[in-house]
Write a structure and sequence with these properties.
Largest sheet: 3 strands, mixed
Number of domains: 2
Strand order of the largest sheet: 1-5-4
Order of helices and strands: HHHHEEEHEEH
Low-confidence stretches: 1-7, 158-162
Radius of gyration: 18 Å
Shape: flat
Number of helices: 6
Distance between the termini: 16 Å
Strand content: 5-15%
Amino acid sequence: MIFSFRVISFAALLCLAQASQAQALQLPAPESTDPVTLGLMKGFPAPSDKQVRLATVLKYPNSRWAFHHMRELGPTANVARGAGAPVTLKSAPSDVDKLSFDNGQGASISFADWQRSTYTDGLLVLHKGKVVYQRTYVGMDAARLMVHEQVLHWFTRHSADS
């Protein structure tokens, strides 16, 4: 329980720091900060201007890379999923990309364009226990957990048990 609290606290701190930076600065377009395109941490050793370290995690756009690679930056602990067998989620794909909504500024925006404009790294939509939509961007894949996903896995597991 103490470890879970620490993970949640750390993730919340990172999110708050990121949010405070976003409010104070005019952020560049999301596509211009793609860590894969920028070549962050590529090669060994990575060029000094492309290195992400614990001391520079919150320096934008390093956080976009760091949230995918937190285990490579510092000591972490694996949180076991428990003794039960994993449950495979059923799939019921839906064309969510074409949905549109008000962007809060009086204009309509598609779901796909909204993701591109909000620095989305990955998105999973569940409806009635089925995966209806799943996308990954900027180097994300099914095998890599982001900081917030580690917390989300814990939350989802405990919510399902309730």
